[in-house]
Amino acid sequence: MYQYNDFDQAFVRERVAEFRDQVERRIAGSLTEAEFLPLRLRNGLYLQLHAYMFRIAIPYGTLNSRKMRQLAMIADRWDKGYGHFTTRQNIQFNWPKLRDVPDILDALADVEMHANQTSGNCIRNVTADHFAGAAADEIEDPRATAELLRQWSTDHPEFLYLPRKFKIGITGAPNDRAATKTHDIGLRMVRSSDGLPGYEVSVGGGLGRTPIIGKVVREYLPKADLIPYLEAILQVYNLAGRRDNKFKARLKILVNETGLDEIRQQIEARFAEKRAEWPPINPGLLAEIEAAFTPPVFEPAAPVAPVLSAGLRSFIDTNVAEHKQPHYAIVTVSLKPIGGTPGDATSHQMRVLADIAEELGHDDLRISHEQNVVFPHVPRRHLPEIYDRLKAAGLATANIGLVSDIIACPGMDYCSLATARSIPVAQEIAETFADIDRQRDIGPLKIKISGCINACGHHHVGHIGILGLDRAGVENYQITLGGDATETAVVGDKTGPGFAYDEVVPAVERLIGAYLDMRTEPGETFLETFRRVGMGPFKAALYEEVRSDAA
Amino acid sequence: MARKFQPQMATGNDLFEGDVVYFTSTGCWSRDIGDAALAVNSEAADDLLARASAFPNEVVSVYLVDSAIDDRGRAAPAHFREVFRTRGPSNYPEHGRQAESV
C-alpha cells in the first residue's frame, strides 16, 4: 500500500483546513451558496434529495484494514451506520451534516484518505482492475502507474477546469475487469514485440447521454512516455473540447467530431513537444511508488482440507477467482444480498471485512466498480474460516457474476439528478431470482441499472441494461441488450418501448426465459446467445405479452 | 386554450441538515409539506419564489414545484419525485422523513 509522504500529508491537511474555513464562512453568511457550491463540490460534498451526500475517493479501489475501520467509524459517528460503494470505486455517505464535513475530512486525513477531485470538471479518481497485483492473467500490477497518475493529476493547475469531468481507467491484464473502454482514457497493459510492458491507450470512451466505446489511439506506449502522452491528450482536449454545451463537452464528443486519425495526429504532435520538454520521471520517486505495490510475502504452500460444506463449495464456485499463486485465491465478497441495496455495507460489515483482511488476507482490500469488495490475497487454507465469518455478517452471498449481482446507481432514492428509482428494481429482480440453483442455471449475466441518462449504473454495457426515465410524470424503464464492459466492449441495443415500474421485472423474466429456451447448451451464456441470434427473438419474447394484452 | 394553472409551492433544502423544507404562508419554513403555501396564479407564484428566496443562509436550492391539493385543502406532492422527497429512500424505511411519522 502506498504511504503518504510529507508532501501528500501536508497537502491533504491544508485542503481540510481550507474547506473548514470555507464551511465556517458559508455558515456565517460571508460566502453565498453560489460561491460555496463549487468549493463544496471540489471536496466531494453534494446536496441530494433528502440530505447532503459526501463522496470519498478510494484511489484505484485499494484499502487496508485501518482505512476500512475508519470508514466504519465515520459511518457510525457522523452518518447512519452504513456506506455505499460506487461504480467509481468510491464510497458515499448519504446523511452527513454540513458542519461535520470538515471533521470527517480530518478523520480521513488521519488514515491517508481524502475527497479531492471526486466531483467537478477535473481528472477524477483513477480506477483500476480490482484484481490488480493478484490476478493470474496479469502482466504487471497497474497500480504503481495509477498512483503515479494520482500524484500527477492531483491539483494539476492546468487540468482543474477542463471542459468537463475526465475519467481514467487502467488494467494490467488482457481480460479487462476495469471497464477501461468506457473511460475518457483507457489504459490496458500490453507487451511490446521485445516483451517490455507498456500501455495500449484508448480515448473517448464514456457512457452517459452519448455512450461511446473508447478507440485505440496508440497501440503501444512505453511506460516511460505515459505522463507526457497523457498531458498531450489532456492539452488537446482542454484546448479544443467544447465549452458551449455541457452535453457535448466530454472528450468522446471531440474525438467523434474530429475523427480518430486527426485527433491522433494532434496528440502525437503535442506529444513530440511534451516529450522533449518533459524531464524523465525521477527514477527514485518511481522506485518508491513501485515498492509500495510489491506483492506481499506469500506463505508457503500448505495442505488444504477438502471442502465438505455445500455452502462453501457454492461460494468457492462463484466468488473465488484464480490467484497468480496456485495456493492462494482472490475472494470477492458480494455486497448484493438478495433484497439488499447493491453496494451498501454496514459499519459492522466494514469492520468484519477489515478484520478478515488483516488477519487472513495480507491486509489488502479492494472495491470493485461492480460494487463488491475483494480480498485479493487469500491463502486457500483460510477459505473455510473466511466463509464462516462472512456468513455470520451476512456477507456470504454466492452470486458473483450471476443475475442477482446487479450494478445499480442510487437513483431517485437519493440522487437529485435521477429521473426514476434504480435500487428497488434491483431488489425485486434479485428477489425474483433468489433461488441460487436457478441463478447458477442461468449462468453469467450482468444486469446494470441507471436511474437517469448519466448512466452511473453503466446500463449501456450491461448484458441487460435498464434505464429509468420520467415519461410524462411516470417512471418508465428502457431496456438495452447485448452490452459488454470488458475487452470486447460494446454498447447495448435498445429493445423498443419502455416499461412501467411494475412491468420491468416480468420483462426481465421474459428475456431470461427466452435465453434459456434458445441457448444451444447450458454453457452458452446469455451474451453468447444474444450475439448468435440477435435482437429479433429477444424482442419478440419481450413484447409478446404486451401485444397479446392489447389484442 | 391556455393550460390550466397548476398550483405551486416553494421547496428547498435546509443549509445545515440538507433535509427537505417547504415555504409556508406565514413566511417561514416547515418540514411538513401540508404547511406549504400555495400560489394559484403565475403572479402569486413569482411572489412566492421571491419571498422563499429571501433566506439564502438558511435554505438552499429553492424552487417552485407543481402541487396537488389533498382532501383537507392542504398542499401535497404532485410528481413522484416530490412524493419521494416527502418520504426518504425506499430501501431504508427507517431513514429520512418517513422515519419520523412511525
Give me some keywords for this one:
heterodimer; A: 551 residues; alpha+beta; Sulfite Reductase Hemoprotein, domain 2; Sulfite Reductase Hemoprotein, domain 1; Alpha-Beta Plaits; six-stranded mixed β-sheet; five-stranded antiparallel β-sheet; 21 strands; 17% strand; B: 102 residues; heme (chain A); metal-binding (chain A); sulfite reductase (NADPH) activity (chain A); metal ion binding (chain A)
Summarize the structure.
The complex is a heterodimer of chains A (551) and B (102). Chain A is an alpha+beta fold and 551 residues long.
Question: Can you give a write-up of this model?
Answer:
- The complex is a heterodimer of chains A (about 550) and B (about 100).
- Chain A is of the alpha+beta class and about 550 residues long.
- Chain A has 17 helices and 21 strands.
- Chain A folds into four domains: about 5-110, Alpha-Beta Complex (Sulfite Reductase Hemoprotein, domain 2); about 140-290, Sulfite Reductase Hemoprotein, domain 1, CATH 3.30.413.10; about 310-390, Alpha-Beta Plaits; about 405-550, 2-Layer Sandwich (Sulfite Reductase Hemoprotein, domain 1).
- Chain A is globular, with a radius of gyration of 23 Å.
- Chain B is an alpha+beta fold.
- Chain B has one domain (about 10-95).
- Chain B contains two helices and five strands, in the order E-E-E-H-E-E-H.
- Chain B has a five-stranded antiparallel beta sheet.
- At the A-B interface, helix 13 of A face helix 2 of B.
User: Uncertain regions of chain A: pLDDT < 50 for 5+ in a row?
Assistant: none
CATH fold group of the largest domain in chain A: Sulfite Reductase Hemoprotein, domain 1
Structural class of chain B, please? Answer: alpha+beta
Distance between the termini of chain A: 63 Å
GO biological process, one term (chain A): sulfate assimilation
EC number (chain A): 1.8.1.2
InterPro entries (chain A): NiRdtase/SiRdtase_haem-b_fer, Nit/Sulf_reduc_fer-like_dom_sf, NO2/SO3_Rdtase_4Fe4S_dom, NO2/SO3_Rdtase_4Fe4S_prot, NO2/SO3_Rdtase_4Fe4S_sf, NO2/SO3_Rdtase_FeS/sirohaem_BS
Family (chain A): Belongs to the nitrite and sulfite reductase 4Fe-4S domain family.
